[in-house]
Structure formats: C-alpha cells, structure tokens
Design brief:
single chain, alpha/beta, Spore Coat Polysaccharide Biosynthesis Protein SpsA, Chain A, 2 domains, 9-stranded mixed sheet, 11 helices, 9 strands
C-alpha cells in the first residue's frame, strides 16, 4: 500500500494536553480530498496513558503509520525520523493542534507538480483559538531573503516540501541551541543553498494561536532566536548596520507585556469581519464572556476594541 503514497504528512506529538484538539488535527488529515497520503504519527516518548491514546488515534485510518520513540528527543529529531520513514515524493508538515483545510493537500500537490522551480509551498493561514477563527496571517507570495528580517516568511505547519530537497540539506538541525526555532533555521538554510519556496495566497490551514502561546515565549527562547538571526542573516548576506535591529527584535518584543503583545497581534491580523470585541461567533459557538475578555485585556491598561468608553468626542 505504501508504494501508492504520494504525500507523507509528518506530525510529532508529545503528551497531548487537549485530546479533543489532537483528534481534530488527525481527522482533518483523514478528511482530505487528496487520498494518496500517509500520516507518520510520531509519539516522542509520551507517558503510558498518552501513548495508548495516540496509538488508538493512529488506528482511525489504515494510512496512519504509528511510530514511537523510547524517550523525548524534541521536535527536530522527531521530524527527521519521520522524513527517513517517508514513502511519499512530498513531505507535508502538520502540527498536532492545527486543522488542515479539506483541499490543502490537493492544492499543494498540484502546485509542486506544475512548478518545478519551487522546492516547497506554504500558504496563508487562519488563526484560531478555542473560540474559533479570530484572524488571518498573510504571508509573502514569493519570499526573498529580505523577508527573513522580521520572522520566518513561511508558516511551518502549512508547508509541503519535496522530500529530495529535505534529504539534500540533511533535514532539521537538532542542536539544543535551536530549540523551538528549528523551522526558521531550516528555511534560511534552504535559501542559502539556492532553494526557493512559494506561499499560496489562500488559507489552507487553521493555525492555533492563543493567549497562552505568548506566555510560553520565554527569555531563553528569545535569546536563541537572536543568535539564530545573527548567524543566519550573516550567511544570507543581509546582516547590515541598518538591519541589526531585526537581530535584537525578539528581545525588544519580550519587553512588551503579554496582554499588550496579544492585543496588538489581534489588531494586526484580524481582517475586521464578523468581529465584536475580538470574539467571533463561529459555527454556533458562544462568544467570550466579559469576564474572559477582562482576563486578557486589563481595563486599566488597554481599551477592549469595540467597547464604548462613555466619553464625549
């Protein structure tokens, strides 16, 4: 059966906290309109209870290949193991808490088949949290090296690679100094080797980004990103006096309080449709309560968008 596989989807999971969200991710793969795929589901050393649950999830479809590591190796090493097992011509990334649109694989497969000048293809993504879709992340259509200044110009779990390209660059770097920055480093390495990617200007993935996502961005992670940017920019030839601020940008962003950063992120990425106090009523789901909103936006520090202040103009 594996000799018919055209796309290998690689997903690493470790002790999934919210099992319902994990199952949504797996089911979104099973529901793909493109059928000739395999999902390499790698359990990165989860505890017994979580491991049993992941194994049961893998039994949902015969195209899911369950792999398990005896200990936690980290995302980069786990993905490299998946790549070594991949039977497909293409390797698609997927996180265990995101949701792929039904036509994602079909669109990306057709693109790479008809555009040999590109070695991978990503897409725009819808931003979601526990209440539904709250924004849209637009990515540059054909990123150049200068697009790496702010952040990675590709949303990692939205990308489909040519497997041969990943093998040629030896996959992901497993250095602990790049923990949680593996994708950024991979894309810069690909560009240094004269490979290029493309972003389809349609959201093919729902990318989970919540308030807790910002709380997890600790100082150590920001320091790793600073070091990665310094060396990566230098090798790409974009480290200049006028661009050095972008190297330090992760530290500058870390000074901004989490509620403010969260607020600004939503202002920037929300298209302003179906919107009320950054709460979407999507598919019949309830909106956030005032209490829930107040936990994010302090009324003393920030005005909640859309809320009347009572002041006269």
């Amino acid at each position: 059966m594996r000799n018919r596989v055209k796309i290998s989807i690689i997903m690493s999971v470790y002790n999934p906290e919210k099992k319902k969200i994990f199952l949504q991710a797996v089911r979104s793969v099973i529901a793909q309109s493109f059928k000739e795929w395999e999902l390499l589901l790698y359990d990165d050393g989860s505890g017994k209870e979580s491991a049993d649950f992941i194994r049961k999830a893998a039994a949902m479809d015969e195209r899911i290949v369950y792999l398990r590591g005896s200990r936690n190796l980290g995302l980069a090493a786990a993905l490299n193991i998946c790549i070594s097992y991949a039977a497909g011509k293409y390797v698609a990334r997927m996180d265990a808490d995101d949701i792929a649109k039904k036509e994602r694989l079909q669109i990306q497969y057709r693109f790479l088949e008809s555009h040999p000048q590109y070695q991978w293809v990503g897409s725009n993504v819808e931003l979601i949290d526990e209440y539904g879709v709250w924004g849209l992340q637009r990515m540059p259509r054909i990123p150049g090296k200068w697009d790496f200044l702010l952040y990675s110009p590709f949303v990692h779990p939205s990308v489909m690679f040519r497997k041969e390209t990943l093998i040629k660059v030896n996959g992901y770097c497993t250095s602990r100094g790049l923990l949680l920055c593996e994708d950024y480093q991979l894309f810069m390495k690909l560009y240094r080797n004269h490979y290029r990617g493309y972003n389809i200007q349609k959201p093919l993935l729902q990318y989970r980004e919540t308030y807790n996502s910002y709380k997890k961005r600790r100082l150590l992670r920001r320091l790793r990103e600073v070091r990665l940017k310094y060396h990566g920019f230098r090798k790409l030839g974009i480290l200049k006096q006028r661009t050095f601020f972008y190297v330090l940008r992760p530290l500058a962003a870390g000074v901004i309080p989490v509620p403010v950063h969260y607020y600004l992120r939503r202002v920037w990425n929300n298209p302003g449709e179906k919107r009320k106090d950054y709460r979407w009523k999507e598919n019949g789901k309830r909106q956030r309560t005032k209490k829930e909103v107040s936990e994010i936006f302090s009324s003393e520090a920030l005005p909640v968008p859309g809320r009347k202040t009572g002041r006269k103009k």
